[in-house]
């Protein structure tokens, strides 16, 4: 007798928990729990969506040629080395599924994105968690953890929920220090918020073992649309494309993403707003005695004295209709990850925490 059994690893998966969006007793909540863009999405994306709505009886192109050409033109990358997915999550799934399986190891780090161990289990591989050093990805610890079974290393730069970046030069050292059989995936979901950073594009251009992933969910404000992309060596992209469903992106997704990526003014404007409000929020938190690192993303990790303080601050924010993210599952029971909002929203957060601090 054979029983119906799931593939190895699947039952090890703890379901991903997203940011909350509702609060009992509040009609108008301020949601700062999912790193969404306070300005929404670029108007050109909405216009492209409306135009494409007339085409939904047609199958979309399978090769994503127009979107890849637009991404390539904007970023100075070879479109033949770009692959597009349903969010960067799907691109991460392509690379983990195509290059690892049962018996293989996938390295992620202590405070890394919670999708990484999930992706490892989806592929049947074993996630290996490596410590960070002071909330920063530790390149030497990763290199020490590599074994003959390691197939991939997954890191986000800037990191989520830390907002920190790997020190300059270390990414290169990591890529160069990994054995030939190991792929380094640099998840650049927050690249546009990190001044002067290319997301790993140069490394992915030059190295045979580096894949960069990017998303339309953050600075483009299109998280609800689900589009992301990856850039890497042609041979790697070719392998990944074989397991990509031919119609993974709809005509709506393709049209809106293409319009959005060409809107460079939008990116500049959102990055400038974020930098200003992020500095303001960090300054205010530190003034209140709440610890936080410099952030290179569109969120700040506030670290309270202990878990009870974080719980109390979270409750106070919720009483004021503000939802932020608990990050206990990321190794920060004492932390709250707060998405950087616009000027008014940031003012609300600072005022709410200030009142809590004063005990009023
Ligand atoms: C938000 C985020 C993403 C984006 O995921 P999508 O599937 O593109 O929406 C990827 N990586 C990290 C670390 C993130 O925080």
TrEMBL record:
- Give its E.C. classification number: 2.6.1.9
Q: State if RNA-binding is listed as a keyword.
A: no
Q: Which residues form a coiled coil?
A: none
One of the GO biological process terms: L-histidine biosynthetic process
Mark the residues carrying the PTM N6-(pyridoxal phosphate)lysine.
218
Q: Which cofactor does it need?
A: pyridoxal 5'-phosphate
Q: How does it assemble?
A: Homodimer.
UniProt name for this protein: Histidinol-phosphate aminotransferase
UniProt organism field: Aquicoccus porphyridii
